[in-house]
Task: structure prediction
Amino acid sequence: MPSDRTPVLFVLAHPDDEFACSMWMRALVCEGRRVGVAYLTDGGFGGQATARREAESLRVLGRLGVAAADVAFLGRLHGWPDGGLHGHLDQAAARLGEWVDGFGGDASLVVPAWEGGHQDHDATHLVGWSVARVRGFRDVWQIPLYTGAGLPGPFFRVLRTLRENGPVEAYRASWRERLEAIGLCFEYASQWRTWVGLLPFLTVHLLLAGTFPRQRLDPRRLHEAPHAGRPLYERRGFLSQAAFRAEADRFISLNLRLHGSET
Result:
């Protein structure tokens, strides 16, 4: 990360996605960086209570030192449904851009990795890419959440970077931070069904590796599938890869036409 004091803005898909960067967030706050967090879906998949999910994330972010005034639940405000962000890419980019501008000038941007785990994560990656390139941000990172790359059926790995996304850097957590990061996951009581699957793998990663990895966003990857084989979201029956790809290609083409080709 740069040594200046530009804000670091985490653009996430769902309340609770901050689990993938929690201790890095705290470290940035402790360095004196202003940390902002925006969520691009309403978190209401399957009729879940969005207010409860937001309260859980606000409680976690508060413990990490993130000011509540710097947290925006854009998905709920604008009606972008959990599971359906790919259908709202243009509006999401416009509204996220307005939120980012509120921090003034340059910023470091952090988005979910291009990894084929959840369609909303990949859609958020696209929206963040668009906002960063329009505003000329050069410091743009991607963080892994979970991916099914190289695995069959519904199986996945947590906080596993993809080789295709380039060199890996990481925040290495202390033992105290590792245990705290695991403990914070129990704050997401409304998501207990999800965390029954996620928490064991996250715990193993944090105890053995203790890292919160990140990679630079590579715009060339947007023209490729995240990995060989079917993405996890398709294997789980949430969305076909073809349907996501159609929206992604339209959005990418529009951005390149309006704002010029990548350099």
